[in-house]
Amino acid sequence: MDERKLTAMHNDQSSLLSLRGLTKIYGSLVANDAVDLDVSPGSIHAVLGENGAGKSTLMKLAYGVVSPDAGEICWQGKKMDNWNTSIARELGIGMVFQHFSLFETLSVVENIALTIKGSRSELIERIKQVSREYQLEIEPSAMVNSLSVGQRQRVEIIRCLLQDLKLLILDEPTSVLPPQHVRSLFDALRKLQNNGVAILYISHKLEEIRELCDTATILRNGKVTGIIDPNKKSAHELATLMIGRDIPKIEQRQSTNKSENAILKITNLSAKNSDPFGPELKDINLSVFGGEIVGIAGVSGNGQQELGRIISGEDLRRDLPSSSIEILGQSVTNKDVTSRRDLGFSFVPEERLGRGAVPPMSLNQNTLLTAFKDGMLKNGFIQNNVVTQFTQKCITDFKVKCSGPSAAANSLSGGNLQKFLVGRELMLAPKFLFMSQPTWGVDVGAANEIRQKLISLRESGVAILVISEELEELFEITDRIYVLRSGRLSPSLTTSDVTPDEIGEYMIGETREETEHAV
Amino acid sequence: MQFEFERRVTPSRRVMMAVPFITIAITIFLSGIMLLLQGKSVGLTFYAFFIEPFESAYSISEIFLKFGPLLLIAQALAIGFRAKIWNIGAEGQMIMGAIAAGSVPVFLTDSSSIFILPAMIILGALGGMAWAAIAAFLKTKYNANEILVTLMLTSVALQVLYYLLLGPWKDPMGFNFPQTVMFQDAALFPPIIFGFRLNYSLVIPILFTIFAWIYMERRFGGFQLVVGGLAPQAATYAGFSSKGAVWKSLLIAGMAAGLAGMSEVAGPIGQLQRSVTSGYGYSAIIVAYLGALHPIGIIFAAFFLAVIHIGGDIALVSADLPISSVHIFQGLLLVTYLASYTFVNYRLKPRKVSQEQVGGASS
After folding, report:
1. Using the 8-state DSSP alphabet, how is residue B179 labeled?
2. Do A425 and A347 meet the contact criterion of CB atoms below 8 Å apart?
3. For residues A105 and A146, what is the distance between their CA atoms, to the nearest angstrom?
4. This prediction's pTM
5. pLDDT at A151
6. What is the pLDDT of residue B338?
7. In the sheet where A198-203 sits, what is the strand order?
8. To the nearest whole number, what is the mean pLDDT of chain B?
9. Mutation test of the interface with chain A: which of B1, B215, B236, B354, choosing the one with the most A Cβ atoms within 10 A?
10. How far is B233 from chain A (nearest CA, A)?
11. Engineering a disulfide at B138: which of A17, A234, A313, B144 sits with its beta carbon 3.0 to 4.6 angstroms away?
């Protein structure tokens, strides 16, 4: 190994991993177009780009999860044929995916034993040693299902560290962390860097990258638009490279038109989670008034899914006291989705394909999904001309880029489909709009348009509830914020009076005590 | 060179249209090989299968006799399949429809009332629906898998039929054969042309096909079923009842199968006996898929399968083929169909890219 490294050095091939002209095509979409990337040993190299720029695809290519349509992968200057994950792992590459790959019913050490050789006691010892060294505290015998998202991420990182690690790939690692935990993650990463491990760090958050990374490769539409030193560029310059223009600012206005009575009122709601490992909802009290935007912050997996489904009526709990959920002063606890919609309720879920829209169906048919009461049925017969008119208006008014009303939902980009869904729900003139993760997987331009729509909707007196993981987003658009953690909701916080760190405190809550005990 | 399947961004319509034809071509090719191995004459066999059925007016009428029940059941099954409700027990629902309908002439042996046949139609439909309702109830109440339940209920239905034929409903004058009395004329559909077995029960599948087309293409109820099949979460999100979809799918199929069973006993068979279904309940599954689960496609598929049913019967005699060859032919048809259908959603693509291609792609 050392010899090869030496010859590599002599050949002036100083990079650890280099990707040459990698191209990956999915159908008509060119996810990566002749991308070059060089990671030097011991550097923290950022891959920066907005949603859909091809970052994740590139990392999957680098780790050998998918194979490229063209281009080559070199490790320490040597061209690698038949690149795949097991070779990558053997050479010392580790990857932590955005969605973790841990078995919930197994303990930490059992999960690690699946990929790392060694007896149980040896592994426990090594886990303890590594977690001490990098201050990534974890209890090896804890069950994964009892761990917070941040702790699970540590398990994934430790698993990589137990192999002879030379390169660690992290895909959007901070999206699941409260601000406080981001710092300890960065400390661990810097320590790794000092020990000679290179890090490939994928993110769309400019500030993080400027703080942590020494080189950044910027992707836009699958192409490299720049290889720069992030510390020497301003956030503004980075943004321009990333999206091709400056990030547009949202016009903020103070909420003026607040209604007297709550449009949505949730009182002492407690409910078991249908996912056996999901947190139980406990004593949730929440109200949303007309003319305000209320946000629910928190890391996903703290009961957001369940709360969302209970508010929308998709998960109907007939055993709850009838006062639990009220819309416009009426109890809807025992009412199904349709009756809630009849009261003026609209909802855009976090999964667009498969929940908010039927993927292979046309936009017309997807209009019919929730807007069918808008004069689209006559004695149960579908009035196609009314449907098409509605769809066409939605496409025009909300600037949905597509081939027309008969385009299939899954042929639209994430941002355009989200604009269509928001448009469809807004055209139904709701009194209460509920959105879950409004800009997940949505490009910057569309995300801004959607946020702007929400703000102007607020002006017209509509009550809006937004569940989001993106703190920045909530600070940008909301009037009040609640934090959901382990199925409990924090008191209402006025957005203008609170700092991200304070929100972070609520996001950590007991979790921090747990980890302290675990040491 | 290795190949891998890559998911298409959108299902290919061209492939979808080609699938039935490719299926038939490959099936014919494979069964040709099978025939050669058996030492049979390929030409003669296919002649018997595909040409001879059209050579006499009688066998053409027989094609339509088989076409009716296949069409009726396949249309109904397709509605359920598009909602992803896998009712594969149409056979049993057909038997129960035949039993329920047959009860009228069994108990009113001598009546020549004009209400006999309408009563049989209604009872036939209800019998099939009742049998399907058991599966719907178990599915919605206990989440019991409808594939298993409908399949096992078919065996139960068969035993109920055997019990009746060997016991209470046995023809006292029938020399102890397990069958009921021959039904009186008032309990039979009149033939369309005198001397042929083809009868007016053919009206039912035709009307049902029109219903199926309107329901799936124009009605909101059909749309809701399809949404439930394609994206169950989206159906819940939109407030469409998933239990309602189970009930609708199974009851429609039960009704159609029951009517088909009724048409058999009030048509070509003319009594209840051990084999009242001729396997239509299973063949209709093939028909539904071969017709791409579309009301129009199913018309052609039902006709095609009716032809090979009749052709198979002819081939037994004129090409000296064993009956299992006909079953293998049908089985090949479904397997080939499912294999070909993969290419609607996937494409084959070489796994490795050689250096020249890389150069070509980047230049």
Report:
1. B
2. yes
3. 9
4. 0.81
5. 84
6. 84
7. A93-96, A167-171, A198-203, A44-48, A215-220, A223-228
8. 90
9. B236
10. 5
11. B144
The token pair at A59 is 């990392």
A67 to chain B: nearest residue by CA? B351
Residues of chain B in contact with residue A23, where contact means CB-CB under 8 angstroms, are 361-362
Contact list, B221 vs chain A (CB under 8 Å): 380
Best of A355, A362, A386 to mutate (most B CBs within 10 Å, chain B): A355
Strand partners, A223: A220
Which residues of chain B are within 8 Å of residue A357 when distances are taken between CB atoms?
231, 234
Q: pLDDT tens, A395-444?
A: 999 989 888 999 989 888 788 899 999 999 999 999 999 999 898 877 77
Lowest mean pLDDT among A1-10, A247-256, A396-405: A1-10
Looking at this protein, which amino acid is placed at residue B244? G
Helix (H, G, I), strand (E, B) or coil at A465: strand
What was the pLDDT predicted at A255? Answer: 64
Measure B7 CA to nearest chain A CA, in Å. Answer: 8
Rounded to a whole number of angstroms, the CA Rg of chain A reads 25
- Say what the pLDDT of residue A518 is: 40
Q: With 70 as the cut, is the pLDDT of residue A4 above it?
A: no
Q: Which residue of A has its CA nearest to B362?
A: A34
The interface predicted TM-score (ipTM) is 0.82
Find all residues with CB under 8 Å of B220, minimum gap 6, and list them: A368, A372, A377, A380, A381, A382
**Please, are residues A225 and A233 in contact by the beta-carbon 8 Å criterion?**
no
Angle at which helix B57-82 crosses helix B220-230, to 10 degrees, equals: 70
Cβ atoms of A15 and A39 closer than 8 Å: yes
Cβ separation of A410 and B227 shorter than 8 Å?
Answer: no
Task: Decide: helix, strand or coil at residue B274.
Answer: coil
> Residue B65 CB: number of other CB atoms within 10 A?
23
Tokens at residue B209, please? 């096909």
Cα separation, A316 vs A176, in Å, equals 28
Phi, psi dihedral angles at A188 (to 5 degrees): -65, -40
Report the C-alpha gap between A325 and A465 in whole angstroms. Answer: 14
Q: How far apart are CA A177 and CA A151, in angstroms?
A: 10
Give the pair of three-digit tokens for residue A146: 């009892």
* Nearest in space to B222 (alpha carbons), one of B83, B86, B90, B85: B83
End-to-end CA distance of chain B: 24
Q: For chain B, how big is the Rg over CA atoms in Å?
A: 23
Q: Would you say residue A13 has pLDDT above 80?
A: no
Are residues A200 and A59 in contact, defined by beta-carbon separation less than 8 angstroms?
Answer: yes
Q: Structure tokens of B271?
A: 């009594």
